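Researcher: Structure for this, please.
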Amino acid sequence: MFYSLKSEKSLKKEINEYMKVGESDFMKRKIIIYTLVLILIVSIIVFLSLKGRNQNREETKKTDTFIENLPIGNASNLINEDEMLNVENVLKHSKIDNIDVLISWIKEFNKEPYQNTGMVNKWTKYNVIKYNEAELANRWEKNHEQSDSDCRMTAFLLLKDHLKMNQTIKDYGSYLMFDMDAIDNNKDYEVLKANRNDFITLFNEIDVKDLSKEEIKAAYNKKWKEYGISMKESNASLITVIMHDNYDNVAFLGHAGVLIDLKGKLLFIEKIAFEQPYQVTVLESREELKNMLFSRKTYFGDKTEEGPFIYENDKLLYSYK
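Model: Predicted structure, token format:
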């Protein structure tokens, strides 16, 4: 009986010791497994990171090559998918806002047949492009009950997150009534609604009654100062054509576009007007931009009216007279 009890105690002791050894081995195996899993996870993260960097380098290299090959003095309506993709990459490279929305607007406009409209499906000298306004209007209105975007809405879409204002206004004049109708009533342009007052403040007409020529010329710069409007520093800027209405005694923003400075070249992005094309133009200098804009008769009134004036953000670039 004593022997049996002793043997039983020894057996239990041996079992306990074995169990302890087993638990120890199990813990060791668990630690090893956890370590291997952690190494695997870290390796995957490093691999994906390096892969992402390589992809970014490749995309940057492709974008740089595209910029290098951009044909100065040429314009495109981005009908060609490759041209659109390349321009999209340039905009991303330049950290422009709401690119996906812009692309959707362009695709919607370009999906209709463009023959006989003057639109081009490849890079073409901008000074030979002649749009058929009536044909373009009929083309859009055939399948759309509401108007599309215009130059101001397009420029604002791309730069609205670059802009800052200390004060804003909510009332607008007659020169913005079609813009505001589109923003307020067309779901395609709801993206602009959250910054509605900023849009009005930036683009609303300016009272220039009893102002001298020099004061009219400086009115848009004064407006930026008055409302504390500023633009985030980047290679993108807002180009505006300020026109004078001598009858209503206002200076109004007749055209707007976005200028991107690219390694010795300039890319100007604009929507020509309501129901007219989106156009991307490659320019050599701001002087060439001036010549292109001043060649458009629509920006000129009668001889009693001042300007037009071309501004880059709040700086006067050129005055026609």
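Researcher: Any notable elements?
Model: Residues 97 and 158 are 5 Å apart (CA to CA). The first helix runs from residue 2 to 69.
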